[in-house]
## 1
Amino acid sequence: MIRTFLACILSLTLAAPALAHRVNVFASVQDVDGTEFVVVEARFSTGRIPVSGDVTVEDAQGEELFVVALESDGTARFPLDREVASDGLSIVVQTGDNHEGYWLLTPADLGEEN
Amino acid sequence: MKFVISTAFAALIAAAPVAAHYGMIIPSTPMLAQEDGRSVDLAISFSHPFEEAGMILERPEAFTVTHEGEATDLLGALEEATIMGETGYTLSHTLDRPGTHIFAMTPVPYWEPAEDAFIQHFTKTYVSAYGDDEGWDAELGLRTEIVPLSKPFGLWEGNVFQGIVMLEGEAVPYAEIEVEFYNEGQQTAAPSELMITQTIKADENGVFTYATPSAGWWGFAALNTAPETMAFEGEEKAVELGAVIWVHFEEWISQ
């Protein structure tokens, strides 16, 4: 499983565009009224916020789970399914102008003991 | 007689005071990538970095981390440790958000008999988390500090580092800045004692510039004398206020 996760990291790293105008992605788990959400935040390296884009969520095996749209404030959120996410999630943001960045939500980020 | 003189000379050399003192905050990395984990380990000391000669660091008055303008007290989390042979502290700290996290220490004033003065080095180190450098030029509002004009991480060896020396909120024209390399593992030797600690001066706006010859951690200490004195054994003594910043320069690797 760790190997799969590492392979996933590697392929993402290799695929990451090396541009001056990067998009940084960060995701964390937040509790809203007893429901856990994954909150995704995207920001260009210039500090500007991307106003549109897609967020692709994959499981640790690289299986695409779903795609959600980036809100105009550069964020997206979706409910956390701990069963599906138990080995981690890959979250890739592709902005409207075709910049790409990712965050790997690890089992440790989710408080899972692995 | 010749033997006696050379023995005396050797003893003098052995007893010669090592170069400048530095408050030191050295993180395990200046730029934490998400693949590296979620925390940095800090080594906190009061040392002579070029010679790796440690001194006792008393538990500081304050130790904080500042992110997006919000300071968090970490003093209680410092764990006593031996660093460069003397008492220092370590700390493992989780960086829970992207951006620049600034670690800062206010030590208790240290009595230095050789200089007949107290020394207090306000020390800080900037760490970027997860590819985001937002906040790299933040000023903490310390009594004295070096405010970076160059990003204090993500620099190549040979790049210049520029900063403004601030004291009580004002730039210090022609401030004196001592520059010293953290010579970890004694990787280099200085051809002259003058080059263990290099001294430069700021311009009329308090701005200084220094180009490093090699990768690694470099300490910049701007030294000023406080307007007040402190008592030592019934006598009033001068207090040296140091603004220290530690900056890492990355190795340039040709392919």
## 2
Amino acid sequence: MRRLKRKYMNDFPILNRKINGKDLIYLDSAATSQKPVQVIDAVTDYYKNHNANVHRGVHTLGDESTELYEAARKRVASFIGAVTPSEIVFTNNATDSLNLVAQGWGLINLKKGDVVLTTVAEHNSNVLPWEYICERTGSGVEYMELTDEGLLDMDVFKSKLTDKVKVVVLSHASNVLGTILPVKQISELAKEKGALVVIDGSQAVPHIQVNVQSLGCDFYAFSGHKMLGPMGIGVLWGRRELLSNMIPIRFGGGMVLDVDKKTYELAEVPECFEGGTPDVAGAVGLAAAIDYLDDYGMENVRKHEIELTSYAIEKLRTVKGLWILGPHNPDVRTGLISFVIDGIHSHDVASILDSEGIAVRSGMHCAMNLHKNMQISSSTRASFYIYNTLEDIDKLLAGIEKAVGLLK
Amino acid sequence: MDDNLYREELMEVYKSTKNRGTLVSPSVEVLEKNPLCGDQIKLQFEISEDGIITDAKFDGSACAVSVISSAYLMDNLVGKSIEHAKKLTKEDLMGLIGINLTTSRVKCATLALEGLKNAIGKYENGKSNTENKNKNR
């Protein structure tokens, strides 16, 4: 297993960089992952050899580009267990996908008095699109609290799941707490009440095996760049019948079949949601990232991250005044750890770690509601991926101890 | 200019209580926040009739850059006129601290400066309101 990991680590050119004279230890994959040479090469190859606009001209390159783009769609569909590739809408990122659901579905289906049920732990990208739609439709967002450990109490969920709830909006895995929510159970309960389930899978798809059909949700959104793929490509999966009844939010070229001055005829799903020239190279790069993850094996990704997370929790617990946010059981969380050190601001921790070549995230991680709810001003987040090692965590611990020594 | 923000003399400023705390009867106070990173700093000034800052203190929870720049700023302001304080620029503040800050940390340093400008505005507003009230009597 060790040798296998080394083999994969050599695939990431950026890991050879020195930061402030030290070897880069990249612990910010929850913000964006690094890219293996296979993905970088796939993007380069596309631009060098196949670049042309898709679904338009009849020339050879146009065909090649279209075939690559549609092959990427198939690749994504099989990776997350979609029924057909046409259930995959390519977007710019998860934020874009979530806005598409909120506006494309929410605007025509929500009405006065309806409730959008979510938690305080959501990323801004999963809450603000709904707050905006609720304001316009007279519906309202209701926030569920989490337990002290950062879990969703299913009894709380059941009690909040009233007949007024039309849609349940949740992150599959929290970007701050790491908590993995029981989406399958949530979907079953929501279905009984006739509510839709929209899942932000940005922090889940890169780290755990996801099958949208067995999860039972209705929409599932994620970004390519957090799962070894390029920036600028995102995915919205939706049930075919729901996508077919949604309105497009980006009008223009490529999303219509016919235009006759005052009237137009929309293209089929998913093209009708992909107005304008898409990020074909991004889709090609995402397909290469999925190939890479499949080769590594998602069960191995999970195994590796549980090993790193267990080790990190054990080590970080030894630092006086440091407390870890979210559940401590690695089986119910992903490979990221957010923590707070009494009396030390997260920016200072991150700056001192940076001087040691260690990249972590500091601040509120776009989850203001959660931080305010926990009454903390900010936190530091170390997030792991397939290229991280136990030695990285030893260095993280040494860096944190240095920060505590300097600032306390 | 030095790149090392966490060198010993700056850490002494960070931990120092010299300009930290609260004034008994401040002429003006502001609470300055940076919601993105959660910094929150209260600035208080005691200003004499002839517009001289006679005392200045800050307090709150913030990162080292915010704290150090607040400490230097407060220290520098005592004994100076409001007119002098109004003219202070970001560059002046950077000169006082004497460190090269990365792009992402510059806004931490300028939090106190923004607070100072807001405090002066508030003070002068309050003064002109009082003067107007007096005139109207």
